[in-house]
# Entry
Amino acid sequence: MVIQSKPTAIGPVCGRILSKLEANNFGGEDIFAVHLALEEAFINAVRHGNKMDSAKEVKIDYSVAPDKIEVSVTDEGEGFDPESVPDPRYGENLYKPEGRGLFLMRSYMDTVEFNERGNSVCMTKYKEKSNPAKGEN
Amino acid sequence: MASIKPRISVEYADNATIVTFVDEKILEEMDVQALQGSIMPVVEEAKRIKLILDFCNVRFLSSTVLGLLLRISKKVYEQDGQLRLCNISPRIYEIFKITRLNKIFDIYEDVKSATDSLPAAD
# Structure
């Protein structure tokens, strides 16, 4: 589906996706993780990809299976190199107010992959992989 | 659709100013900006504020809120104040832990332990 590129637009879509997870008996930890990653991916698309231009759009595709969810978020921006984003846990980055979205997506989802252009991220979460702190330390 | 604005309650106790986030979810840029607009004047109006941020109602937040907390912290310590966070749910504490922000913020179990940790009133 395609939605307007403004921060409030994710709410209804997110609600629909989380309801599907509930219907497929995903646990609270998994639902929290997907919720967080989806919010972070969407706000990155709106803020960094589409540069807060509400005339632009964000495309969200998802599929929920009994054992996993796949969700992709695509903006109209030029893309970026996800490997160039510094680790927010170290040095002066720890004190910066921004730069944690991608790190949280990677920490809470099982796979996070970008297309070559860097304007589309595809994330997967498998049911009941219960340790969200795999990015710790 | 009616939007729910993020709300805070402010309690001026003997030794601390306690700001409680009223809403369960703090998500969007506009919410965070509104919160910043509510909390920063509280910090700026007080000299050497001893501020406790109470998360007892909060069940979900995004990284945008972490940014707000860092800005509040900077302002508080620039003014020789003290900041404590408390009543953070396990899931949200996990976010602090994963991002290592638990190393920056002084996090306490509840308002009482946060208050007790503060230096005595001037």
User: Anything to note?
Assistant: The domain at 2-132 of chain A is CATH 3.30.565.10 (Heat Shock Protein 90). Chain A has a mean pLDDT of 93. The two ends of chain A are 37 Å apart (CA to CA).
